[in-house]
């Protein structure tokens, strides 16, 4: 398992479009996921300990962001041939178990992850209402273990600011996670 850190936010970069199948049987496009005040795109998977450590907080924070007009979507881009825990059927089970309030999509070609520049799980891309990138940081202090209760909610606070002002915080702490499991092409 390779641990990677996300790059610095490229403020203003436009959110790429996509059309990907969801665990709910529907094909989702970027514009189906956007809220009136922004969009949070999360690259996650099932097997990564960094993601497992924050799943409940992802659900909590995305539910609260919905009330602020920020839509959310999660994309799984790992190659499930090498990681069966990331299979589409397993994605369905995890989404049901954790009651994901956002679409959970599979990027089988891995092209969407490459277009976004995603490198790890979790990797967060927070956009304003104009779909301009404003956040590329961590959820909170969690790593492979869940951080203690009461830590600063970096992602939530940043996206709340984006919803209210259209701009993300200047200082952002990178997310850390497992490398995306790319196919050998």
Alpha-carbon distance between the termini? 20 Å
Order of strands across the main sheet:
6-5-4-8-9
Count of structural domains = 1
Report the CATH C-level class.
Alpha Beta
Strand portion: 15-25%
Shape: globular
CATH architecture: 3-Layer(aba) Sandwich
Low-confidence stretches: none
Task: Give a count of the beta strands, DSSP E runs of length 2 or more.
Answer: 10
Task: Throw out a few tags for this protein.
21% strand; antioxidant activity; 185 residues; globular; alpha+beta; Thioredoxin family protein; AhpC/TSA; three-stranded antiparallel beta sheet; Glutaredoxin
Q: How would you sum up this structure, described in words?
A:
Helix 3 (55-67) packs parallel to helix 6. The model has no long low-confidence stretch (mean pLDDT 95). The strands form 3 sheets. This protein has a 5-stranded mixed β-sheet. A 3-stranded antiparallel β-sheet has the order 1-10-7. The protein is globular, with a radius of gyration of 15 Å. It has helices at 30-33, 49-52, 55-67, 88-97, 111-116, 154-165; strands at residues 3-5, 19-21, 27-29, 38-43, 70-76, 104-106, 120-121, 123-127, 133-135, 176-179. The protein has 185 residues and is of the alpha+beta class.
């Amino acid at each position: 398992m390779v641990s990677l850190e996300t790059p610095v936010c490229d403020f203003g970069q436009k959110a790429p479009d996509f059309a990907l199948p969801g665990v709910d049987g529907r094909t989702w496009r970027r514009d189906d996921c956007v809220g009136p005040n922004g969009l949070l795109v999360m690259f996650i998977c099932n097997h990564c300990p960094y993601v497992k450590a924050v799943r409940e907080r992802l659900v909590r924070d995305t539910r609260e962001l919905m009330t602020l007009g920020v839509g959310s979507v999660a994309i799984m881009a790992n190659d499930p041939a090498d990681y069966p825990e990331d299979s589409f059927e397993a994605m369905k089970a995890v989404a049901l178990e954790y009651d994901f309030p956002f679409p959970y999509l599979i990027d089988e070609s891995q092209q969407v992850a490459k277009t976004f520049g995603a490198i790890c799980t979790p990797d967060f891309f927070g956009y304003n209402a104009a779909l301009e990138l404003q956040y590329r940081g961590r959820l909170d202090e969690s790593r492979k273990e869940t951080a203690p209760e009461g830590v600063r909610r970096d992602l939530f606070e940043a996206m709340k600011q984006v919803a209210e002002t259209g701009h993300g915080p200047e200082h952002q702490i990178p997310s850390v996670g497992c490398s995306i499991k790319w196919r050998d092409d």
